[in-house]
Amino acid sequence: MTAVAAEAKATGRDQYRALAFRRILILAGLACALAVSIATDMALGPANYSLSQVLSALFSPDTVGDQLRVVIWDIRMPIALMAVTVGASLSVAGAQMQTILSNPLASPFTLGISAAASFGAALGLVGGVAIFPGAVQYMVPVNAFIMAMVAALFIHFASTLRGVTVETIVLLGIALVFTFNAALSLLEYLASEQALAAVVFWTMGSLTKATWDKVFVTAAILLVTLPFFIRSAWALTALRLGDDKAASMGVNVRRLRLHTMLIVSLLAAIPVSFVGTIGFVGLVGPHIARMVVGEDQRFFLPGAVICGALLLSTTSVVSKVLIPGAILPIGVITAFVGVPFFFVLIFSNRRRAW
Amino acid sequence: MVSLVLKDVGASYGRTTVLSKVAIELLTPGTTTAVIGPNAAGKSTLFKRIAGLISGPGVVQLSEATRGDRSICYMPQDTGSNAVLTVYESLLLAAKQDGGWRVRDDELFEIDAILKALRIEDLAFRGLDALSGGQRQLVSLGQALVRKPEVLLMDEPTSALDLHRQIDVLEFVCAIASRTGMIVLIALHDLNHALRYCTNTIVIANGEMASSGVTTDVITSAMLRDIYRVEARIESCSRGRPMIIVDGAL
Q1: Keywords assigned by UniProt (chain B) (predicted)?
Q2: Which pLDDT does position A9 carry in this prediction?
């Protein structure tokens, strides 16, 4: 190589800075798309308001009529924000499950947490069984949460046992999916027609029952857990080089894996118990993030948050426009929206999925 | 100056003892020591035990361990990874384990320097999955060196390298050791490499230390017969260097 050519070639530092800058741009672009999606989500609904009406209801609520204000602030905004918090939580949960288990199939859905929540909800809907007797009016979400945590803690404690490898944990998760699905089918078989309809609707996943309280709870859990991942960003990234290597870099692999599993359980169980089964976001949100910004957690973590939120928010939009006047269950639509996009990313062959 | 002393060090997985009673004193900084022995003798276990990745009886003593955990770095044998990370990022994350999110220019210059020294600048922005076995080993070495260890434990670092790269890496490591005063332990299967590059040699067999000392005293036809079960001679080549000539397996 001539001296000129050597000079012309950017140093690694410059190339790295350019790469990091490109990733920040991608994240910013995705964040903008998310903002647009949230605004669209709020503009759409049985009563059609223009985007300018929605914006004025948002930023100067005193100037608009009562009806518009109530529709935007009390009905549509909780749904739109619930899509964001649930999508982000499930996606981060999936991202970190995939990271600590070194498995592209890991997600709240494939590890049985969603199936357990469905079973818990069905216990309440079919049998009127409140696992936690104190909160009868919240019986269904509380049941779902308790069962989801039972499944998650089972996975957690299984992973503390000697000789249980990360591969075994994924297998255990799949076994949990089958177990809870079988139990759910049994309940459905025994259920009255009315209860059966309620269970089926619950398992399809829906944002329509979103309230400000639920939005606050999911957002709070997300905000409380994210700092842990932010602090462990380098260690979590190192884990992807293999346990021995991470350990030789000073990472306490075992402790990091256990803590992450515990936090991720909470992060997955809360949204699932509020909105039902939304399987796709927790699996694919992180994969999309990985494909566009790589696996350095400093980019991957915000990437997973934004991709998950964007995926569920656009799904919420699509669920409203597909059949005018009706809001289709979001769990059903998620895959229809996400799969084509995911396929395009995989088959475009430019980036590796895993 | 750094020195490494092992007193009756052992290790076990569950109830199976895989290593016992290893005692060595590496007092001279900048020296390279070979750890040799048959497959499954306990070489990797010894390294993991020294690096603190597994626990066991005995004491691993590092003089003036100024930088705590960072002072001993273990470079494992299996270096495959399917992470969606570039080579550059993998070195960066090795360097940044104790740091915050912000990356300073001098940290990046350090990485540039190491990539250049290992002559793998061209691989810098290639994905880890797109590397050949030999390239992976060089990247692995880069990840270890970027942490500026005082003791470097290399588990068969040359096993996937071509002849040129083998010599390159070993000469590079010896040079960097003598320049920085780093103590290097290398698990090697090629005993001629041990004879040529390593001042001292430790022989591990059946989970115990069979012998240790100056390399030319340790690697003898008797040792090769007892430990490796081969008939071999050690002769001087035309340039005066000792070479192992293997006549056959016993």
Answers
A1: ATP-binding, Ion transport, Nucleotide-binding, Transport, Zinc, Zinc transport
A2: 56
**Any CB–CB contact under 8 A between B48 and chain A?**
yes
- What rounded mean pLDDT belongs to chain A? 86
CATH class for the region spanning B4-79+141-218 = alpha beta
Q: What is chain B's mean pLDDT, rounded?
A: 88
Query: What tens digit of pLDDT does each residue of A254-267 get?
Result: 889 888 988 988 89
Cα–Cα–Cα angle for B52, B56, B61, rounded to 5 degrees: 55
Task: Decide: A204 and A329 in contact? Cβ < 8 Å.
Answer: yes
Strand (E) or helix (H) holding B12: strand B4-13
Coil, strand or helix at A190 = helix
Distance to chain A for B40, nearest Cα, Å: 17
Q: Does A51 touch chain B (CB under 8 A)?
A: no
**What 8-state DSSP symbol labels residue B118?**
T
- For chain B, the domains span 4-79+141-218, 220-250
Nearest CA-CA distance, residue A248 and chain B, Å: 5
**A155/A172 Cα distance (integer angstroms):** 7
pLDDT digits (tens, 9 = 90+) for B62-83: 876 555 556 888 998 866 788 8
Q: Enter the ipTM.
A: 0.87
Interface contact flag, B85 A235, Cβ < 8 Å:
no
Superfamily of domain A60-347: ABC transporter involved in vitamin B12 uptake, BtuC (1.10.3470.10)
